[in-house]
Amino acid sequence: MAIVNQQAQHEEFAPQKKKKPPTEDEKRKEKIVAGSLMKALMRPGAGDSGPSDGDQVIYHCTVRTLDGVVVESTRSEHGGKGIPIRHVLGKSKMLLGLLEGIPSMLKGEVAMFKVKPQLHYNEDDCPISAPDGFPKDDELHFEIELLEFFKAKVVREGQGWECPREPYEVKAWISAKTVTGKLIMSHTEGEPYFFTFGKSEVPKGLEMGIGTMVREEKAVIYVTSQYLTESPLMPVTEDSEVQFEVELVHFIQVRDVLGDGRLIKRRIRDGKGDFPMDCPLHDSLLHVHYKGTVLNEEKKVFYDTRVDNNGQPLDFCSGEGLVPEGFELCVRLMLPGEMALVTCPPDYAYDKFPRPSNVPEGAHIQWEIELLSFEMPKDWTGMDFKSIMNEAENIRNTVLREFNHVNPQDDDEGKVFADTRNLLHLNVAATYLKLGECRKSIDTCNKVLEANPAHVKGLYRRGMAYMGNGDFEEARTDFKMMMKVDKSTESDATAALLKLKQKEQEVEKKARKQFKGLFDKKPGEIAEVKANEDEGQVTSESQKDGAVQGDSSDETNSEDSHEAAPLIAERRGWFSYFWPTGSRIFSSLGLQRCTIL
C-alpha cells in the first residue's frame, strides 16, 4: 500500500512534459467545420504521398463562381499571366481552404475545391487581402493543379513576404552538394551570385525554390534530376538529387507592366510597407518627384521637378488622366519612399498626351520617379450628406486648383485643357444631381455653359437638373437647344423630352388626385371616395409609375452615354466554365477523395 502511495505521489509531482504551442496555421484550421470545404478529384496524381509542412508547392489556380464564371486565374487561357503560384506550406501566407486542401493532393493531380466564404477571403483576420471586385462573400470553386512540390528546410527566417519572380534581379549566396555530402559548387565568397529570374541562369528547380523565399531568408532546397537543367551556375550533374543551400541576399523588383516588354518598371530604392497592399492601387492624391529623359543618342533631360518646379513635387490625382498613362500605371505599383526607373514606349508616354515642346514625337521616355507619399480618398460609407458634400467639394477644389498651374502653349493644348476642366465640372454636377442637390448641379453646369453656351453635355446635364428641380420649361429649352446645336444628339434629346413630358403628367395627375371629388358632387354633398375606387386608383397609379420608372432606366443609360471617363479600362468578358457531365461527388474535408465519373 505504501508503495502504491509513493508511486502516486511521484506521478503527481513528476515534471510534466510541455506541449508545443499550436502554430498560427493550426489555430486557423480550427475554424474548419464539416461541409465548409469539399473536394472533387478531376485528374489523379502520381506517387503515394502529398506535400507536408515545409514543402515548396507549385500550382495553378483558377477561381470560379458556382455557375462557372471565371473570377481570377493564373492560367493564360483564362486571362492570367501563365505563371504558377509558389508557396511554402506552413510558412507562406495562404487562403485557409488551400492551406487545408493542397496537402491532400498528389503531384500532377487536378482537383476542384468547393470553398465556403469563411475559408477564403472572408475569413476573419485573413492574412491575404482580396483583389478588387472579388466576390469574397460567395461560395466559390477553386480548381487546383499541383504541378510540383519539393522538400525544403528553412534555416533562417527572412523579412517581409514578397518573393522574387520573372523578371526580378536576384543576389544570393549559393552552394550545392550531392545527397552524400560531396561539394559540387560554392558561390559564398566575394560578391553574391547575380541572376535574372526567368533567364535560365540557374537550374529550373533551384529557381522555383528561390521563388518561394523572401529577403534575407536562408534555406535548404532539394532538387531532383529532372529539374537540374543546364545553367551558367553549375555544370550538369548525373546525381538523382542535389541539395542547395541558399541565402537570398537581395532582389530588385522589375515589372513588365504591359506584359510585352515595352513598359518596364525597375525599383532602384525600396519603399516602406508591403507590396502591393501599401501601394496606391486605388485613385489617390499622389506626391512625386520625377526626372524625365528622352531615350535617344543625346539622352537629354527634358524636365526635373527639383530643378524646373522650384524644388516642389508634382501633386496629382490618379484616375483623372492628368499624367501620361505609362507614368500613372507605374506609380500605382510603388511604395511610399520608393524610387523607380521607368522605361516607357511613345504610345504610353507623350504621343497620346500633351507633349512638352522639347520632347520629339515618337520618343521613348525614361522617368526616374520617387513616390514621396499619397493620400487615399475617404470612405464615404456611413457619412452624412453634409460630410459627403464637403469631401466632394475638397476633391473638386484640389483638382481644379492644380489646373491653375497649367499654361497651354497653343490652341491644341488649350482645347485639351478646356475639355478636361469642363469634364471635371460636369462630373461634379452629376454627383450633385444624384444626391438630389439640383440647384447646385445647375450652378456647376453654368460654369461650363458660360464659356461655351453650345456645350451639348452641359446642356443635357443642366436640363436633367432643371427637370429634377421642377423647372420644366427651362429643361425643355435645354433639350431643344441640344438638337439645334448637334443633330446627332436628337435621339437622346427626344428621350429626355419624353421623360420630361411624363414628369409633367405625373405632377398634374397628383394635383388632380389631390382635389378628386371636390367638384363632381352636388352642392351640400360631402365628397367621399369609396375604398374600392381608392384601391383601383392606387393600382392604376402603380402600374403607370412603373412605366415611368422603366423609361427612367432608359434615360439613365442615355445619360451615361454622354460621360467621358479617362483611363477607364474596358471590362473583359469572362470565360465560362461548366462542370464535366456525370456525377459530381463532393466529400467534406476530413479528407476523403472522390472522383468525378
UniProtKB/TrEMBL annotation:
Domain called PPIase FKBP-type: residue spans: 54-150, 167-252, 283-375
TPR repeat placement: 456-489
Classification via PROSITE patterns: FKBP_PPIASE (PS50059), TPR (PS50005)
Keyword Isomerase: yes
UniProt entry keywords in alphabetical sequence: Isomerase, Repeat, Rotamase, TPR repeat
UniProt keyword annotation of Cell membrane present: no
Catalytic reactions on record: [protein]-peptidylproline (omega=180) = [protein]-peptidylproline (omega=0)
E.C. number(s) listed in UniProt: 5.2.1.8
Chain intervals with Basic and acidic residues compositional bias: 9-31
Region (Disordered): 1-31, 527-564
GO molecular function per UniProt: peptidyl-prolyl cis-trans isomerase activity
Name of the protein in its database record: peptidylprolyl isomerase
Source taxonomy: Eukaryota, Viridiplantae, Streptophyta, Embryophyta, Tracheophyta
